[in-house]
Amino acid sequence: MKAAPSAGVSYPGGMDRPAPAISELLAIPEFGAFMLSAPWLATAPRGTGRRVLVLPGFTAGDISTAPLRFALRALGHRPAPWGLGLNVGPDDETVRQLLRRLDQLVKQNGGPIDVVGWSLGGIMARLLALHHPDRVRQAVSLGSPIRVEDPEANLSESVRRLSQLAGLQRGRRGHDHTVIPVPSTVIYSRQDGVVAPGSCLQPVGPISENIEVRGAHIGLGHNASAIWAVADRLAQRDGEWAPFVPPSAMAWCYPDPDRDASATVSTAGA
Q1: In what order do the strands lie in the sheet with 9-10?
Q2: What are φ and ψ of residue 252, in 5° steps?
Q3: For the CA atoms of the chain, what is the radius of gyration?
Q4: pTM of structure
Q5: Which of 47, 116, 119, 148 is disulfide-compatible with 140, CB 3.0–4.6 A?
């Protein structure tokens, strides 16, 4: 993605709104593809046994992240569920328990861990990295609206209403969690029918990147291309972070995000 010197965020080409809700039906064949992709996923870069905290999306629980955790475990990582039931937002008690969970895994790991979050879980993963960079090695988000300029436009109606009921918007028009001090990867899809693809983007820098995949929002946790990218990111050694480069045979799975200059992100005025 290319950064633009303007305040706020500009998302030409429809990136400022979710895709039509019917696009979420893609999640059904994506699960079938995940089941068939095991031999392919087995060739992804392998981990070194590091602990990985996996956070579910809004109103979802650990069962939703089971396919992702299963795949990561098979590749040599030690993924852990968040263990806090349904994710209904970062209230005070949830934050306290999440920090205890983070500390527990850091102690088990003997050092900083990786944190992966889906949707709202990705926002929470980035907040952990922002406030506790000594405990989070890197953060990966999947379909997470880390920068919402306008909830009326950037979120689907159902998610907007649920977030209002849960008090997540707290009277603010938007939020911005685009810059964090540890290596970070954003994974997003232009077929996302829940959040605006553009709201998921972060400015690209020496330790930050955006990776586009094809698929539905509710399928990102079992999207084989997304899982491959997550595994590749987590397999990097300490101090050796580099931008994602998909194998040439998989190029179709990862569209060129700059193919039509449809997304520009800026931190100016943030």
Answers
A1: 2-3, 264-265, 9-10
A2: -60, -30
A3: 17
A4: 0.84
A5: 116
Distance, in Å, from the CA atom of 111 to the CA atom of 10, rounded to the nearest integer, reads 38
Q: Is the pLDDT of residue 165 over 90?
A: no
- State which of 86-95, 134-143, 166-175, 187-196 shows the largest mean pLDDT: 134-143
169: CB partners within 8 A, 6+ apart: 151, 163
Distance (Å, rounded) from C-alpha 178 to C-alpha 127? 10
Q: Which domains does the chain have, with CATH numbers?
A: 2-265 (3.40.50.1820)
Amino acid at 148: V
What value does the mean pLDDT of the chain take? 83
Instruction: Give me 32's structure tokens.
Output: 């079938």
Q: How far is CA 40 from CA 75, 129, 154, 199, in A?
A: 12, 31, 34, 31
CA dist 53 to 102, 116, 135, 143, 180, Å? 8, 6, 11, 17, 17
Alpha-carbon gap, residue 191 to 145, rounded angstroms:
14
